């Protein structure tokens, strides 16, 4: 009898294959006395070299498959192995105390891990995790223990693991790894985001897959509905093979739309853009036929490092995106740090409510050196494409005016320095705080565009933390309160002849799309892999019909009724 485990659908598609259990074995370390310390040091150096060789391969793989920011994790691991403070301390310990390399490495790395872990600083704590990861790799070589590395897989499997670390994910070979399921994680966890960009079907957060599944068991991973089927019957296999074929056929249909414009059944054009986090993501944007970048989250440039990026580094990243997009619109958002996105090296005090705290534009307006450096980089890059600048977390008109003022000051300085800066940069804001949505008629007179950030707008309107499982039932994109706010923003913008986009997750949601079309949204910005399905859906919808239905929908009482109505009428 088959058994079905439910989890979170993290990456679409169906995978059918045998289970490969990815484990991290415990390493048993014994302390021994050695006579020939010279030989022992050599044995240690050889293990370090092997670990370096592995990391080099993983890093290059990550660079090709996942981009520079993910590859940087492994560059950091390599640096640990080149750090004389650690490596020389191990060698000295072997020589002075006549102990074996395993115990010397274990003790010295343990000392560093403890030291970093005790610091009240997230960045340093991450360094502890790096050292732990790297020292395990070296110890495995010393002990001759084989990790079940995803890189060693040479037949078709689905991976089962408690969680996948970035180094595991970077080693996945798409030819053999058909899918994966994990015990922990959510839709926005690291492994989930990576699986979507690699287009590997995945189910995460099942809580029990590692407990219930043993190696070699036949499995179906249903990344469309978030299910793992253990030991499927012939009937189930048949059913899911059909579902797999249907999904493949659907993807092939979508792929035909890659060079098409997005046109509704009644001839209306809607712009479909994609969200990115790094310049490497532009490849996916173009492959999926997006018409622009609707949101470039620049904070990733600032994360995973120990100091602020320089103006030159930022300029190169922004220019790369603009050049690759070849004149298509690119909306770059200024630094939106805070909430769940921390920058430990800024050493900001801990807050009771980080989502309501000192973040994003609030921080930029106070620490203006950080803001001005970014604006200069953006302005210089503007000469290389179609740049639009967007400020995050705007709550008042005073904030918008101040931010714009700083931008204009930097522009004037650059012009005086004879640096070329585009004269057509639109300046817009994220509408993600209810006060700004309510006052959008006033904002619309001063901004060039709005982009509605529903990820935050929903959490602030419903007072339901977007990261908290226990209140997730209140996180309701289809609540008429949210829909009315969106309508208010779109109407206000259109009255002043301004355009409105949406760059929150809701923009790519098949239930929301007909409503947003009816409300008159001009630009939908979503993850790149959602662009073609959205284009296909929009081509079958009529804008005039959607407009009619929207009146009914906005008069509903509860989110559930909205969903039912959309399912029955579109
Ligand atoms: C949003 O809040 O909707 C948004 C797009 O920004 P982020 O998810 O980066 O907060
Ligand atoms: Mg936001």
UniProtKB/TrEMBL annotation:
Keywords: Cytoplasm, Kinase, Magnesium, Metal-binding, Phosphotransferase system, Sugar transport, Transferase, Transport. It catalyses: L-histidyl-[protein] + phosphoenolpyruvate = N(pros)-phospho-L-histidyl-[protein] + pyruvate. Residues 6-127 form the Phosphotransferase system enzyme I N-terminal domain. InterPro entries: PEP-util_enz_mobile_dom, PEP-utilizing_PTS_enzyme, PEP_util_AS, PEP_util_C, PEP_util_CS, Phosphohistidine_dom_sf, PTS_EI, PTS_EI-like. GO terms for molecular function: phosphoenolpyruvate-protein phosphotransferase activity. Residues 251-541 form the PEP-utilising enzyme C-terminal domain. The keyword Zinc-finger does not apply. Pfam families: PEP-utilisers_N, PEP-utilizers, PEP-utilizers_C. It is found in: Cytoplasm. Its EC number is 2.7.3.9. Its cofactor is Mg(2+). Residues 154-226 form the PEP-utilising enzyme mobile domain. NCBIfam families: PTS_I_fam. General (non sugar-specific) component of the phosphoenolpyruvate-dependent sugar phosphotransferase system (sugar PTS). This major carbohydrate active-transport system catalyzes the phosphorylation of incoming sugar substrates concomitantly with their translocation across the cell membrane. Enzyme I transfers the phosphoryl group from phosphoenolpyruvate (PEP) to the phosphoryl carrier protein (HPr). Belongs to the PEP-utilizing enzyme family. This is Phosphoenolpyruvate-protein phosphotransferase. It comes from Fictibacillus terranigra.
